[in-house]
Each structure stands twice: as structure tokens, then as C-alpha cells.
Amino acid sequence: MAFKPKRASIVFYVSDIARTESFYNETLGLDLQRQEGAEPFWLSGALEDGLEIVFFQMEGRRGDTPALVFDVTEGGIDDIVADLAAKGVTIVTPVSEAPGGWSADFLDPDGFGLGLWQAEDKPRSLR
């Protein structure tokens, strides 16, 4: 199975989601929307060119984000992660539950964190 990303989001882990919401909406004039499925709420919005930006409040350290997260639009996240591991890719976080679906994290050859996200209504395996 050859995975070819069609969509991606930039994801930020922040220390104060309300402060982030105020800054991006009021100071920068973006239209971030509150989303449910994580505690506390999370934020998402799109720039005019269609690039989605997402913000979650969680523990982290500087350098953990932003992260580029590829959408698995057709499903099969388990297969994709297995294929990446078979090719020697370092899997940082195996397929795990995420708001609205499933996610996994891995490293590129230089150690940059990348991720996958798949909606919960898609099959985890296509094999």
C-alpha cells in the first residue's frame, strides 16, 4: 500500500488554550473555531490558502511543535504505520486514539516529528 498524502495540518501544543484563542482570533484576526473531543476544547481553522492549523492544550516542551500531520483520508492508518516501520522509520507513537479518530507519530531521517491522523469513521486497515 503506497500512502500519498493529500492534506496536511500544522499542529501546535500550547500551554493555555484560552490565551491562544484570544491571540490568534483577536490579535491576528484568524477565525479559529472551538472543537470538542479533547479536554479542554481544542481549536482549528484554515488560512485562505487552505492550510489547516490546529491547537491542543497539553504538556510539551519547546521544539515538540509545530508538527506536520498528514490526513489519512481513505483509512488504513494501521497498514501505513506497519509499512513505515518495515521501511525502518522510527515510530514514536503507535496508532492511538485521538480526538475524532486515530493518530500516530514518526520521525523523518533528520529527526523531525511527523504525524498521521485518520477520522474514526474510516477503517483502520484496508488489507
From TrEMBL:
It comes from the Bacteria. Coiled coil: none annotated. InterPro entries: Anthracycline_SecMetBiosynth (IPR052164), Glyas_Bleomycin-R_OHBP_Dase (IPR029068), Glyas_Fos-R_dOase_dom (IPR004360), VOC_core (IPR037523). It holds the Pfam family Glyoxalase. SUPFAM superfamilies: Glyoxalase/Bleomycin resistance protein/Dihydroxybiphenyl dioxygenase. Residues 6-119 form the VOC domain. CDD domains: VOC. This is VOC family protein. The lineage of its organism: Bacteria, Pseudomonadati, Pseudomonadota, Alphaproteobacteria, Hyphomicrobiales.
